[in-house]
Amino acid sequence: MSRWLASRTTSTLGTLLRPWFGGIGCIVSLHRIVPDEGRSPLPQNRALEIRPKALRSILEWVSRHRFDVIRLDEIRSRLAEPRGAKFVCFTFDDGYRDTLTEALPIFRDFGHPFAVNVVTGFLDRTASAWWYFLEDVLARLNKLAFLWGGEPFAWAWTTPEQRVIAFSQIAALIRAQDALSRDVLLQTIAEAAGIDLLARTRELTLSWEGLRQLAGHWHVTVGSHSIGHHSLAQLSDEDLARELRESKTQIEARLGKRVQHFAYPFGGRESAGPREIEAAMQADYTTAVTTRCANLFKDHAWKLHALPRLTIDGNYPPLSLLTKLEAGFVPARSNGWKRVVTV
Ligand SMILES: [Zn+2]
Predict the structure, then answer these.
(1) Ligand 1 centre and the CA of 81: distance in Å?
(2) Per-residue pLDDT tens for 263-272?
(3) How far is ligand 1, taken at its centre, from the CA of residue 20, in Å?
(4) pLDDT tens for residues 211-232?
(5) How far is the CA of 83 from the centre of ligand 1 (A)?
(6) Which of 19-28, 123-132, 234-243 has the lowest mean pLDDT?
(7) How far apart are CA 52 and CA 103, in angstroms?
(8) Is the pLDDT confidence value at 17 over 90?
(9) What is the predicted pLDDT for the residue at 181?
């Protein structure tokens, strides 16, 4: 994607093809709002982070171009009966503390709503935001060795480049596990490293009290992002249904509000396919969002459980990335020129 983002033809073609690929709305996917001093040293995690001033410039751009910033709750009716300007809906995944401390004040300044999709295991302090745990391992040590499945695994790093490679390789090993094995592997790594698996999760993600504060603002819609942040495609039918239903009922019980929206963990084709989409429908969600990259069209009214989003990767200039994605040419090209992207 980077070559196309850098190219000047992208902007020209984006403008020309906007009527065809721009759609009637879009859902923007964000994770963290992080001031300079808190930014991750690893590009893999920096992808999840944008600066407060970048969020402000995105919201200024949205106002300048007179988009309708809407709540997730309104998406169904806006797709069924398109009207007015192009709509945009902002979503924050995982439920980081900075959604409350950094994002909320900025959205309040602009008077715009947003949604936060939370992982109940993070709120309960039983599941690990392991990508930040792994960052800790790489920052505090310079080697890691453990036995897994009877095989020895070992990495050593001294330079930033070696850290990036080690992160990718260890993360790939973690993501390749099924649900139960993943948690055993994480515990094995935590013991080998002598680092608390949940320390960064406690530091970076919302507590139930923090979520209650967020949910108390009219700007905020709370959705579910599962219990354990597993790739749902790796789960049995029973575990899949449990991740969808129990996260929903737990958030509803804690907040005393209906939870109608779901965001698939990871959200790509390999983790959210037809079985997962059907399960989200069966679990009584009104909408569910993926991380397939595309704008929304009227036909998405019949695909409410497979809504694509425009993901802001913090390694690129956020506003410039959003304007290119929103114009539709870059996503359309990556989707084989398909307009209505679903599964
Ligand atoms: Zn997530």
Answers:
(1) 30
(2) 999 999 899 9
(3) 30
(4) 999 999 998 999 999 999 999 9
(5) 31
(6) 19-28
(7) 7
(8) no
(9) 94
| DSSP state letter for 232 | G
Integer CA distances (angstroms), 44 to 15, 57, 122, 206, 325, in order? 31, 23, 20, 21, 20
* Cα of 188 from ligand 1 centre, angstroms: 22
**Which distant-in-sequence residues (6+ apart) come within 8 Å of 75 by Cβ?**
25, 27, 87, 89, 287, 296, 304, 307
Q: What DSSP string describes 31-83?
A: -EE--GGG--SSHHHHTTEE-HHHHHHHHHHHHHTT-EE--GGGHHHHHHS--
Ligand 1 center to residue 31 CA distance, Å? 8
Pairing of strands 143-148, 261-263: unpaired
Whole-model pTM: value is 0.94
Distance between CA 319 and CA 73 in Å, rounded?
25
- pLDDT confidence of residue 35: 96
158/147 Cα distance (integer angstroms): 22
Residue ranges, CATH 3.20.20.370, the chain: 2-126+205-334
Give the CA distances from residue 62 to residues 11, 75, 107, 232, 318, in Å, rounded to whole numbers and listed in that order: 17, 17, 12, 33, 13
Q: Is residue 343 very low, low, confident or very high in pLDDT (cuts 50, 70, 90)?
A: confident
Q: What is the mean pLDDT of the chain?
A: 94
What's the CA-to-centroid distance between 48 and ligand 1, angstroms?
Answer: 10
The answer to whether the Cα torsion of 68, 291, 229, 157 is positive or negative is negative
Can you read off the two tokens belonging to residue 165?
A: 């490679």
- pLDDT-above-90 percentage for the chain: 83
Q: How many A from CA of 199 to the centre of ligand 1? A: 18
DSSP state of 205: B
- CATH for 2-126+205-334 (3.30.70.1150, 3.40.50.920, 3.20.140.10, 3.20.20.370): 3.20.20.370
pLDDT digits (tens, 9 = 90+) for 302-311: 999 999 999 9
